[in-house]
Amino acid sequence: MNRFDYVRAGTVAEAIQAFQADPKARFIAGGTNLVDLMKYDVERPERLIDITRLPLTAIDAHEGGLRVGALVTNAAAAYDPRVRERYPILANAILAGASAQLRNAASTGGNLNQRTRCYYFYDTATPCNKREPGSGCSAVGGVNRIHAIFGTSEYCIATHPSDMCVALAALEATVQVSGPEGERSIAFADYHRLPGDDPAKDNTLQPGEIVVSVDLPENGFATNYTYLKLRDRLSYAFALVSVAAVLDLDGDSVKTVRFALGGVAHKPWRNRDAEAFLQGKPATRESFRAAADLVVAEAVPQSENGFKVELARRAIVRGLEQAAAGTPQSLSDKRIQ
Ligand code: SF4
Fold first, then answer.
1. How far is CA 212 from CA 55, 215, 260, in A?
2. Which residue ranges have their beta carbon within 6 Å of ligand 1?
3. Residue 289 confidence (pLDDT)
């Protein structure tokens, strides 16, 4: 790890000013991703701006929903009674991720900003466009079993590692940020980006901007939801495929539906055409299979991850069935008899 300066900010304005004074600095909160990257020599910041003392640690009522401060730890969010009661899919998704120790340290804002997942990104002996633009992508044609099947480019096929963000995509949360140009709101679907020809950028934050909160809308889909995570082992593993599915039903028909996939793209993956297809349809396996077929029709698997296409198709059907039946089956919330 290289030597670095350390400063601590007391307010959001102070943190932004500290960044403007040294645009190569990095903000640090829980450090659960950045410190790893520094140890692997992937990140070499000369200055860290500690933002853990900023007043962003509350969960408050906001416009009928909840405003989750960016420094609320993943554990605090998952165990907050209001989150558990009104947004159980979010609590479930958070508890499906990482370990208890990591969830105690990791922040809400940091979870959004963790870097995409790829062995080669962490291995400085190999080419990687995300780490070193223009050097090439070792994963294309390489070891790519865990990589993306949607939204890839020839420059990068990495996946976003978060569970929490998959639930936030299905809930259509809003990200509030503050930066040198003032404050702005970003729809969750627009927060993370696809790699295109610039895979070094994971999200749409501008230099010096800080996430200040994640706002949850009024409807938390607390009855018909599921977060289904499929992985190589039962814990401490990233998703091969995950599905966050939420539904409102009108009798036996689908009134509103959203579903997002994790482990398959550079960002939580939604297919609006498949969601629109389900609107008004009977909430049956046949409808869900047809929607899943629409999603996977766009998949472009790599040399080693073709299995993800069928896994995603089946996970979508199972996730939607569980959501429709009100029988979520996550590690923390099993209701199947
Ligand atoms: Fe780097 Fe992305 Fe290629 Fe992985 S998939 S080696 S992160 S460019």
1. 9, 10, 24
2. 118, 120-121, 128-130, 137-139, 156-158, 199
3. 98
pLDDT tens for each residue of 116-129? 999 999 999 999 99
Q: Report yes or no on 321 lying in a domain.
A: yes
Given a contact cutoff of 8 angstroms between Cβ atoms, the answer to whether 225 and 236 are in contact is: no
Residue 250's domain spans which residues? 225-325
Q: What is the rounded average pLDDT for all residues in the chain?
A: 96
Per residue in 43-74, pLDDT (tens digit) is 999 999 999 999 999 999 999 999 999 999 99
Answer yes or no: is 299 within a domain: yes
Q: Tell me the two tokens of residue 36.
A: 């790893």
Is residue 49 domain-resident?
A: yes
Query: Model confidence over 242-283: pLDDT tens digits?
Result: 999 999 999 999 999 999 999 999 999 999 999 999 999 999
pTM reported for the whole predicted model: 0.97
- C-alpha 204 to ligand 1 mean position (Å): 19
DSSP state of 57: -
- How remote is the CA of residue 36 from the centroid of ligand 1, in Å? 17
Domain CATH for 39: 3.30.43.10
Q: How many CB atoms lie within 10 A of CB 235?
A: 10
Predicted local distance difference test score (pLDDT) of residue 162: 97
Residue 19 C-alpha from the chain's centroid: 25
CATH code, domain carrying 271? 3.30.390.50
| Structural domains in the chain (count) | 2
